[in-house]
Amino acid sequence: MTPFLETLLDTLRFQDVVDVLLNSYILFRLYILLRGTRLFGFAVFIAVLLVFQRAVSYYGMIITDRVLQYFTALIAIGVLIVFRYEIRRIFQFKSAKDIFWRVSTKPVQTPIEIIAASAFRMARRKIGALIVFKGHQPVDGLIQSSVAWQGQVSREMIESIFWPDNPVHDGAAVIEGDRIVDVAGILPLSDRKDLPSHFGTRHRAALGLAEMSDALVLIVSEERGAVEIAKDGEIHDIDGPARLEDGLRSHLGLGPKNIQSDQHPQWSVVAAGVLSLMIVGGIWSSLSLGVVRTLTTVNAPIEYIRGNPDMEIIETSATAVDIQISGSRALINTISPNQVKVRFDLTEAQAGRNIITVQENHISLPPGAKIKKIDPASVEIMIDVLGRKELPLQVDWHGRLPAGILVQDVRVDPSTIEVSGGQLLLDRLAAIYTEKVVVDNLQASGSIQVAIALHPASLKLPPLLSDQVRISYKIVPRR
User: Fold this and answer.
1) Residue 273 neighbours by CB under 8 Å, 6+ apart
2) Does residue 185 or residue 59 have the better pLDDT?
């Protein structure tokens, strides 16, 4: 197994599989909705820019990265503005099933195919038409009295424009891409004297524009029901929609029609699905794994989960663990110490000395990160369990008695006391002492009240019990 596949299997989670499949389907649905439209090409262009921008960012080209970010954002905004009507039309006439589920394998009819089919349909019905396709040279100054239209190319739209009862049917329509931009345009007439007698005003207008520019003009004759094109000062007969499509593609620089794709449209859908999965999988691999694995060390504090509330941690050999983490450069650059946690479950721990080996299941990491080294490999924990013990109270005498006297018959009230604390500590204690009682100035028998001294401080007295005791003593002469 290659290192890349080994790293992939170590990093891949169930959530990652769902993530890749979901986004692959979203990308596939965008292809289904946008295919055959001008918007599709711009969407591909933006995607290529995003990939290029990520590559530039990876190699540390700061200025180019920032310029591409702004440029991509501007293009995306421009697409929403320029193609707002196309976007609205895509979603306006589609049901929720068409948007989210349905896949049509019917070949998408391009604007050129629609124009060719409409031209021969009008020719059969003896409807005249004049359609201009611009070349490299501007023709706005040659076309007079045109009316702005900005309509989507469709069979119904074209035939309605040139319907004899339409006020704009005698003029020329100008088509750019998949839109009819102007109608009712008046073209310059040709002055040639050698034209056939059956050529009418439409033919002379088409030929006049073809002589003065590199535009292509499509002519549909209403008298003869013929379809012709005028280009480079000549008029050519067109004998079928296929030949008209070839002529329009050649003029617009679109290249030949992909017949194989039309014969097997279902294969293009399958290929689009596979390609979507590959693209999203590659993006996930780039974001999660990275091209180069990077190492970093995080000092993670240890957290303890105590199953027994009476359990008490007395001492530990370490309060934090140094964890060396491997991950993509993007992940390592964004990781923070609070994302790495070390937790020990002390439910089964016993009172006394416990040694816990630090394992990967004790450590929580962000997705895509992998543990390379742990230091220290084990942690020693001293654990005690709370307990209670009845211990005698003893007086802590301090100083030296005056000469000639002795202290006899000392009584402490109470004589014993119950304390709580760690069981290991209680087992080592034999008595509890009071605070220091100074005997330097004692002269006669009596009693005093002093506080109990709890050492260590982890020892506790029962609730509501006073920490004061009374000491009664008797002074007698020394023999």
Assistant:
1) 24, 28
2) 185
